[in-house]
Structures are given as C-alpha cells and as structure tokens.
Amino acid sequence: MDISDMIHVVIQLDPPTQRNGQSPMRIKRRELFRQSASSITAGGFLHLVSDHLQANPLGNTPPAFRFVHLTDMHVQPELGAVEGFKQCIAAVNKLSPKPDFVITGGDLIMDALAVDKPRLNLQWQLFDDSIKTIEMPVFHTIGNHDVTGWSKQQHISSGDPAYGKAIFSDRYGQGQTYRSFDHRGWHFILLDSIGQAPNSPDYIGWIDDRQKDWLKNDLATTGTLKPIVIVTHIPFLSTWNQVVDSPQKTLAGSSLIGNGFELRKILEPYRVKLILSGHGHVRERIDVNHITHIQSGAVSGMWWKGPVFGDAEAFGLVTCHADSFDYRYETFGWKARKV
C-alpha cells in the first residue's frame, strides 16, 4: 500500500461531509496527495495514519456501554434503610438500556467499626437480602464502615475471625479487597483505600505497599492504550471540607487517601479517564491532570436522614464510549422517614 492508498483509508474512516444538500464530495486520492504534500511530509503523514489506526482499529471499535455506581448505602434496620436501598435497586433495574453491571463504592452497611457481633451479622444479612434483587452483575469496593473493629470504640477485637476485612474479602471480594477486570475495551480497577493508623486501631485513607505493587503490575499488564476507570471509597481529592469550613482547614487522616500523591505518579503514564469515590456523601467533580475525579454522593443521603446539602439520595450512571465517558447523577425518589 502506498501513501495515497493510506490517505484513502483515512478518508473512509471519517464520516462523509455534505455540501449544499448534495452527495458527499468525492476526492481523488492523487489530487488529495498533491494538495497535502506541501503541508506535511510523507513520514509525518504515515505517523498520523499509524496513530489513527492504533486508536481506532478497523472494525474493532467497541460499542458504548453503561454501568452504575452505588456508594454509601449504609444498610441498617432503622430509618427505612432497607426499603430505601431496595427502591434504589428497583430504579437501577428499570434503567433502559439496562446497564452492563453495577459497581458498589463502599460503606455497604451502616457500620462494622464499633458494633457487637449480633448487630454486625444483622446488617450484613439485610445487605445480602437487598443486593440479590439487582438484575445484573455486581462488583464490590470496600469502605471504612465495612471493616470490623477498626475503632477505639470497638466491640470486636483482633482475635475474632470477623475482625478487620475478613467478612468483605470472603463474601464480597472473591477472597480479596482489591481487584480488576476488563469490559468492552475498558479496564476497571477496584482499590482498597482503607488503611490502619500507626499505633491505633482506627482507620485512615491509605494504599498499602502490597497493593501498590499489585497496582503497578496490573497497570503494566493493561498497557498505555486502554482507557481505565478506578473505583475507591476514600477519595484522592476533595474540596468539600474547605468549602464548608475553611480553605486552610487541615484534614483528618481518614478524609483522603494519605499517599495519593505517590499513587498519582504511578497512574500518570496510563490512560486513567475516571476515578470514582464515595465516603464524603457529597456530589463533587474535580478535573485535574487529564483525570476526572467524581464523588457520587450517597445512596443513603445523610445516613437515611435526608438530603446532603441539597443533594437527594442518588447513584451515578456512567456511559463509556470508545475513548470517553458521560456521567449522570440519578435520584430515585426516596423520602426520608421521620426520626
């Protein structure tokens, strides 16, 4: 194939243009080549064609698909939380076209940090009974309230089999608290952002060394061409504390991922398009360094007591295209019960 043939290929890849309502213009390859020769070298054009074909392989562009981000459900027996969560799930099931899957963003139950064993088991049972009504595959992300006993007010200590992340890992993480998968040309990474504070049972936002090594290997295997979505419970970035308090506010170690800067450097060479989070129960979007950070608000609103700063109980709906995405904040009509 000579360069004029390659020009013809590129023309066929692009949608035809119309002029004055008539049929698309026909441009002879040799004429176009003569017109282009003065403004671009053959080598430069070949590089352009190569980049175009690499990003858009012939006949291999995946169709758009949708997925749902449910975060901060805080399932509990009080305040109608189970009914509210099931109402949310019913709204997800009615979406048309139906999403390909659901990703939860953590804080699946109200709290495992500072409760006794009966309360812990009840919350997980209520969550299980609710989540099984979703009519599509579900992938789970761990939140701080899904970790048993990591609190100074703990009722369950380190000697108990349920302590820490054991329940989430065994029942919802396929034996892990972080993992990844591919879907229609996109790569998805679900991180465990819950670390334990030094010399304390409390949690902090942190990605430990073992997970960082796993992440580096996972990204290297994925490569630099595939678009990536990362889901984490605790955000990398947030401005909300500064908005509601002070621009000089010092954040607690539990508010953001403490080693997020190091993680950012790991992610930089790759095509990370979107980082989804929860934790703060607020709706927030930050676009920085070619990555969009979205905090999806909360399915539970203010822990099933009503909206958070005017944002109703809701979930995120993401549409992935070949190399971009759209995000929508979807409410489901929940009315908080009177306390």
Fold and architecture overview:
The protein is of the alpha/beta class. It has two domains: 3-55, no CATH class; 65-331, 4-Layer Sandwich (Purple Acid Phosphatase, chain A, domain 2). It is 28% helix and 19% strand. It contains nine helices and 13 strands. Strands 4-5-8-9-11-10 form a six-stranded mixed beta sheet, with no helix packed on it. Strand 6 (194-196) and strand 7 form a beta hairpin. Helix 1 packs parallel to helix 3 (42-55) and helix 4 runs parallel beside helix 5 (117-131). It starts with a helix and ends in an 8-residue tail after the last strand.
CATH topology of the largest domain: Purple Acid Phosphatase, chain A, domain 2
Strand order of the largest sheet: 4-5-8-9-11-10
Shape: globular
Give the number of DSSP strands: 13
Oligomer: single chain
Kindly report how far apart the N and C termini lie. 74 Å
Number of domains: 2
CATH class designation of the largest domain: Alpha Beta
Main beta-sheet strand count, sense and barrel state: 6 strands, mixed
Percent of residues in helices: 25-40%
Low-confidence stretches: 1-58
- What is the helix/strand order? HHHEHEHEHEEEEHEHHEEEEE
Query: How many helices in DSSP terms?
Result: 9
